[in-house]
Amino acid sequence: xxSDEKNHGDSPERIESDKLVTAIRDAxxxxxxxxxxxxxxxxxxxxxxxxxxxMVEDGVLERAEARGRGNL
Length: 72
Fold this sequence. Notes:
The protein has 72 residues and is mainly alpha-helical. The protein has helices at 3-6, 17-26, 34-40, 45-57, and strands at 65-66, 70-71.
């Protein structure tokens, strides 16, 4: 998917928190990264990272680090 195609999906500001939480819970891997969620919601990784940071600040998500896999 190209950057232009991703720009046509929901902007991360409009993605509802409960939809992101559900996507994280339903992910096939035990560790969900920003890139996976950006692909699922057809947005850029940078935009998704900003949305996830907002959710952490709001107390909806907790930041966790998986050794060798970065953090969320």
